[in-house]
């Protein structure tokens, strides 16, 4: 077998443990990991590329399963498939799953997905591998009974996202139950954005009547209870339907506790959190000159360090299945970006008009690694929530693991103390004109990113090495994690 690439002298990290030199050489052939073991460099040929990891961690390529690209009207100021995936590989992420959104008037979700394939192609393709979630806002009988099985079987779409909030996205509880009935049958994962929209609209009305419309009041309009109530309601709906769900961007201790309690009862409830909720607090929304608008996202970043600590604990103890970026950026200094919320004539802010979302696909893994450096989580846990679990939950069956037969998607880090990095937007690779982590000091950054055996990022060798168009669409299999309870409850029998 011809070996194209060998990585030697690295500490190979999996979700279940580590391999240390000299037993940790990784050989790659035709884009796939062919073997792991001792002394593989001896099998290198003249054409084999050999990379010395210098005793640093080697992890699977990041799998970010919550990324918004070229989406809706906000796509004017958002990252597209070109800049968004370029940013991903420069931060160690080799696979993303982004969203193809159905609008309320759409009756043909197959066309929705095909249109997003066309968007990716029209922008020149991607730098990393990618898949799609379907955002479902009109779950008609035709969509659920006729089209969704086709998307699952023929298009490799194995997940949908539904919203409990926003007028143009919200589904009723009964509609969510209809969705879960079909996704359960098809072995798909259902993602739920859980916030109580009626509560939010009521509070917004009160705030606007009082003239309290600066960016900070975005957080006031969405207190923790708004998320907590909806999260618990979503769990109850999922329990009734006996269907796996993932609660996206969980931001509070109370929501985390509801998830943990459900998991203790062996319900197939999964949860995701994001770096913004691990590092930012609501005081950033009070920055002067409307700069607080840069930090507007939903749910909002919280005002208590207790929530931050609870989320880190939830990663460490396994409550959170995934760590995603929720990369949903809009440019700040643009009339159709974040400054939609500022009247240029009167200079009066209106937080409810500010586009939601933050950039973060490039900084997700380095911020997660900072949690390792700070002693919050282990390196194995980072791999679990940022690489392995996302791949398993969403059916990326060749991703997220360092083992023979898996795609050679790898990140080589620096040794501890070798790469202190100050986050600066000018050094990032997205389209957006700011980063919410400006000035953060991080202890590490990917030295190399490797996608299917090809070096696409080499920080010490000029940076971006990958070519746009090398990324591939990945048809996904079903949820490979916890399934409905009756799958195992009805099959398990005690000894008698």
Can you describe what's shown?
This protein is of the alpha/beta class and 496 residues long. It has a domain of 332 residues: TIM Barrel (Alpha-Beta Barrel). The chain is built from 13 helices and 21 strands. The strands form 4 sheets. An 8-stranded parallel sheet has the order 8-9-10-11-12-13-14-15. It has a 7-stranded mixed sheet with strand order 3-2-7-16-19-20-21. Strand 2 and strand 3 form a beta hairpin. Helix 4 packs across helix 7 and helix 8 runs parallel beside helix 10. The chain is globular and about 75 Å long.
Short description:
This protein is an alpha/beta fold. Helix content is 30%, strand content 18%. The protein has 13 helices and 21 strands.
Counting DSSP E segments of at least 2 residues, the number of strands comes to 21
Largest sheet: 8 strands, parallel
* The CATH superfamily title of the domain at 60-391: Metal-dependent hydrolases
Instruction: Estimate the helix proportion, in percent.
Output: 25-40%
Under the CATH scheme, the architecture of the domain at 60-391 is: Alpha-Beta Barrel
User: What topology, given as strand order, has the largest sheet?
Assistant: 8-9-10-11-12-13-14-15
Structural class, judged by helices and strands? alpha/beta
Termini distance? 52 Å
How many helices does DSSP assign? 13
Quickly name the level 1 CATH class of the domain at 60-391. Alpha Beta
Instruction: Kindly provide the radius of gyration, computed on alpha-carbon positions and rounded to a whole number of angstroms.
Output: 22 Å
Report the CATH topology name of the domain at 60-391: TIM Barrel
From the structure provided, what is the oligomeric state, counting identical versus distinct chains?
single chain
Poorly predicted residue ranges: 488-496
Summed over residues and divided by their number, the pLDDT gives a mean of 95
Strand coverage percent: 15-25%
Which descriptor suits the 3D outline? globular
């Amino acid at each position: 077998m011809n070996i194209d690439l060998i990585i030697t002298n690295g500490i190979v990290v999996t979700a279940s443990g580590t391999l240390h030199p000299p037993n940790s050489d990784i050989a790659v052939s035709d884009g796939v990991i062919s073997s792991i073991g001792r002394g593989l460099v001896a099998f290198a040929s003249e054409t084999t590329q050999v990379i010395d990891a210098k005793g640093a961690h080697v992890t699977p390529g990041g799998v970010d399963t919550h990324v918004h690209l070229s989406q809706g009207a906000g796509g004017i100021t958002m990252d597209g498939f070109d800049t968004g995936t370029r940013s991903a590989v420069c931060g160690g992420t080799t696979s993303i799953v982004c969203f193809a959104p159905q609008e309320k008037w759409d009756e043909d979700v197959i066309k929705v997905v095909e249109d997003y394939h066309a968007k990716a192609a029209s922008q020149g393709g991607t730098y990393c591998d990618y898949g799609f979630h379907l955002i479902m806002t009109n779950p008609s009988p035709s969509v659920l009974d006729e089209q969704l099985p086709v998307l699952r079987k023929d298009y490799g779409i194995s997940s949908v996202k539904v919203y409990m909030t926003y007028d143009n996205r919200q589904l009723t509880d009964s509609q969510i139950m209809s969705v879960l009935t079909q996704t359960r049958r098809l072995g798909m994962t259902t993602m739920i954005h859980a916030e109580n929209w009626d509560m939010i609209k009521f509070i917004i009305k009160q705030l606007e009547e009082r003239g309290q419309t600066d960016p900070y009041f975005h957080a006031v309009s969405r207190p923790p209870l708004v998320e907590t109530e909806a999260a618990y309601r979503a769990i109850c709906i999922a329990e009734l339907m006996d269907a796996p769900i993932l609660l996206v961007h969980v931001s509070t201790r109370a929501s985390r506790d509801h998830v943990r309690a459900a998991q203790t009862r062996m319900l197939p409830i999964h949860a995701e959190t994001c770096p913004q909720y691990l590092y930012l607090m609501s005081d950033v929304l009070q920055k002067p000159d409307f700069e607080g608008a840069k930090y507007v996202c939903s749910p909002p970043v919280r005002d208590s360090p207790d929530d931050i600590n609870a989320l880190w604990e939830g990663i460490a103890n396994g409550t959170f299945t995934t760590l995603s970026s929720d990369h949903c950026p809009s440019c700040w200094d643009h009339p159709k970006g974040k400054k939609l919320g500022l009247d240029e004539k009167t200079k009066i802010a209106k937080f409810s008009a500010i586009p939601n979302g933050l950039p973060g696909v490039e900084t997700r893994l380095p911020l997660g690694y900072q949690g390792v450096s700070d002693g919050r989580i282990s390196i194995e846990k980072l791999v679990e929530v940022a690489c392995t679990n996302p791949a398993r939950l969403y059916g990326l069956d060749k991703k997220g693991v360092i083992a023979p037969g898996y795609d050679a998607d790898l990140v080589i880090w620096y040794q501890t103390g070798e790469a202190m990095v100050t986050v600066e937007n000018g050094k990032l690779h997205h389209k957006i004109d700011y980063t919410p982590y400006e000035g953060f000091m991080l202890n590490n950054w990917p030295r190399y990113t490797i996608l299917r055996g090809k070096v696409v990022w080499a920080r010490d060798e000029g940076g971006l090495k990958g070519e746009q168009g090398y990324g591939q669409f990945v048809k996904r299999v079903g949820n490979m994690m916890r399934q409905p309870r009756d799958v195992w409850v009805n099959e398990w029998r005690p000894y008698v």
